[in-house]
Amino acid sequence: MHDAGAISWLLAQTLWVGGLWLLHFLLLPAIAKAGLASLLVEELSNTLRPLLVGLAAFCAGLQVLVLIRAQRLASLWCDRRGQLLLVIVAMAGSYFAVRQWLPEAELWLMFSYLVMAFCGLLLVLQPVPSASGGRGWV
Questions:
Q1: Measured distance CA(41)–CA(86) in Å, rounded
Q2: What digits encode the pLDDT tens for the residues 81-98?
Q3: What are the domain boundaries of the chain?
Q4: Residue 24 per-residue DSSP state
Q5: Which of 16, 45, 26 is nearest to 121 (CA)?
């Protein structure tokens, strides 16, 4: 039987990693291909990307708490899952900082977004932290 930490880990991971990938690689290209005005696609992108980055930051924060609870605080720096989560939180913070103070730096915003997406993909490949402190699947 799964514990609450493992379930919340998987749910949070599904929401934010799936959301980032779905928006960037499926939804926006499909809308653009459907023939909608490029200004409308750009407006949707500018509205939805920050929402998903905020969701990613929140869910990654939840995953940090689950990891700390299951493995202890040192796991943030010593464990690959913790390192990936720290990169994701840092990229989300930089995304919002750059968006606030340098909104014309669109390349950095895209870079931050894609780093979060690929780190999320790497995180999906890692085992779920277990309450017993083991490294295997729950």
A1: 31
A2: 999 999 999 999 999 999
A3: 4-124
A4: I
A5: 16
Cβ burial 62-74 (10 Å sphere, 16+ → b, else e): bbbebbeebbeee
- Find where tokens 């990693």 sit: 17
Burial 7-33 (b: 16+ CB within 10 A, else e): ebbbebbebbbebbbebbeebbeeebe
Residue 15 tokens read as 């929401």
Compute CA distances 86 → 30, 50, 69, 115, 137, whole Å: 32, 19, 16, 12, 21
pTM of the model: 0.87
